[in-house]
Amino acid sequence: MTVSEPMVTLSGVPGSPYTRKMLALLRYRRIPYKLILGSRDLPGLPKAKVGLLPTFYFPDATGQLQAVTDSTPIIRRLEGMFPDRSVRPGNTALALVDAILEDYGDEWLTKAMFHYRWHFADDIARASAILPAWTQGRMPDAALKAAGTTIAERQIPRLRYVGSNEATWSVIEASYMRYLDAMEAHLREHAFLLGARPGAGDFGVFGQLTQLALFDPTPMAITAVRAPRVLAWTGAVEDLTGVEPVDADWFDPVALPATLKALLTEVGRVYVPLLLANARAVQAGADQVETVIDGQSWVQQPFPYQAKCLLWLRQEYAALDDAARSQADAALAGTGCEALFG
Question: For the sheet containing 55-59, what is the strand order?
Answer without folding.
Answer: 33-37, 8-12, 55-59, 65-68
